[in-house]
């Protein structure tokens, strides 16, 4: 009699995706737009102060803590701190003076994430959108004066990028983030301002646990 060979039945416990927590640490370049990055009036001196600003590309630090529910769907808490400096020229009464301003934004958002699964690829693109709160200020380095600071302003967050899978516990990432803030009426020298935003480009690592 022959020996019957049974066809193996795939185990439901074979290696594959499992829901997991993850943490991200990233560094990058930050460029503000809106009045924080272009035409911020200064408040010291007499008369009308007209000013042209050259915003410098600043830096940002981003930290995330999240949970991946499926291969595609995830949720994260995003923390951003971004710093920028602006070299300004003031022209009160025809006289020209120089001042250095810096801006700082601290933002926390809750983001929904969608990751695109590409079979047999180490690269996974992702997109996301979120909402949260922010705290920002403008600081004149010449006079050591804080011109604007506010708490608990609304922030919107959009993000796009990709992950590169190094091993089951570690990914590299690169991405672009856009933050929009609800500072619709900054009280700077009696001037109203437009809603500012922040653009960041980051690289970092993702740890899974």
Q: Short description, anyone?
A:
Helices cover 0% and strands 63% of the residues. By secondary structure, the chain is an all-beta fold.
What does this structure look like?
The protein is an all-beta fold. The protein is 0% helix and 63% strand. It has strands at 20-33, 51-55, 58-68, 73-90, 97-115, 123-140, 145-167, 170-181, 197-208. An eight-stranded antiparallel barrel has the order 1-3-4-5-6-7-8-9. The protein is elongated and about 60 Å long. The chain starts with 19 loop residues before the first strand and ends with a strand. Mean pLDDT is 76; it is low at 3-14, 37-54 and 185-193.
Assembly context of the chains: single chain
Radius of gyration: 24 Å
Q: How much strand content do the residues show? A: over 45%
Fraction in helix: under 10%
Bulk shape: elongated
Q: What would you call the structural class?
A: mainly beta
SSE order, as H and E? EEEEEEEEE
* Whole-number mean pLDDT: 76
Total of DSSP H or I helical runs spanning 4+ residues: 0
Number of strands: 9
Separation of termini? 52 Å
Question: Which strand order spans the largest sheet, edge to edge or round the barrel?
Answer: 1-3-4-5-6-7-8-9
The parts where pLDDT drops under 50 for at least 5 residues are 3-14, 37-54, 185-193
The largest sheet, given as strand count, sense and whether it forms a barrel, is: 8 strands, antiparallel, barrel
């Amino acid at each position: 009699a022959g020996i019957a060979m049974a066809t193996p039945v795939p185990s439901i416990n074979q290696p594959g995706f499992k829901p997991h927590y993850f943490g991200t640490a990233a560094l990058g370049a930050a460029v503000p737009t809106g009045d924080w990055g272009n035409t911020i009036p200064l408040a010291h001196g007499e008369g009308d102060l007209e000013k042209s600003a050259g915003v410098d590309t600043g830096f940002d630090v981003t930290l995330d803590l999240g949970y991946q529910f499926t291969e595609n769907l995830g949720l994260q808490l995003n923390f951003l701190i971004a710093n920028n400096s602006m070299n300004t020229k003031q022209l009160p009464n025809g006289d020209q003076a120089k001042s250095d301003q810096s801006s700082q934004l601290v933002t926390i958002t809750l983001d929904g994430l969608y990751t695109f699964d590409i079979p047999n690829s180490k690269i996974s693109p992702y997109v996301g959108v979120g909402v949260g709160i922010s705290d920002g200020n403008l600081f004149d380095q010449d006079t050591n004066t804080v011109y604007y600071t506010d708490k608990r302003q609304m922030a919107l967050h959009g993000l796009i990028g990709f992950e590169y899978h190094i091993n089951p516990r570690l990914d590299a990432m690169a991405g672009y983030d856009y933050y929009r803030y609800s500072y619709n009426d900054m009280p700077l020298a009696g001037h109203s301002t437009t809603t500012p935003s922040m653009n960041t480009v980051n690289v970092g690592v993702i740890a899974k646990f």
